[in-house]
Amino acid sequence: DRDTDKKRIEELLEENMVLEIAQKQSMNESAHLGWELEQLSKSTDLADSEKSFVFELNECASSRILKLEKDNQSLQNTIQELRDASLTSRESSLKFVELEKENQQLSKKIEKLQNQIEKEKQSNQDLETLSEELIKDKKQLQAVMETLKADKDRQIKDLKQENDHL
């Protein structure tokens, strides 16, 4: 009986050591998960700042688009005035040629401005898409962290119960 008890005690001591090692590993995992959670909260702050940056950028781009549209309108008015002036004043053909050149230059400027407007609009759309993707990724990471935390809590509870049982 004593030999059997000694063997049983040795087995229990060995099992207790294994449980202690598992508990330490679980604590290490818990610390690592805490660190990951901290990193995730930092990235969440970064995502929020990126989101506010995107909104500021959108506002800036919108005001720039409005300015470009006003410039565009002003240039179109100038072109129209030049056309009217060239039609009404049939001065020398030299002046007409100069006005046409100026008209062409203004038309090129308008085209460039319209291209800039299109690029700004596309940039805004790209930034909004990026912002939405970042928000979606944040939500997914939070769900994963909650799942990991629940698993960790469950493991700790199981190990404590097993330890108490032993």
TrEMBL record:
Keyword match Electron transport: no
Entry GO terms, CC: centrosome; cytoplasm
Keywords: Coiled coil
GO molecular function, one term: microtubule binding
Top-rank taxon, per record: Eukaryota
Organism, scientific name: Pluvianellus socialis (Magellanic plover)
Protein name: DAPLE protein
Coiled coil feature spans: 58-165
GO BP term (any one): cytoskeleton-dependent intracellular transport
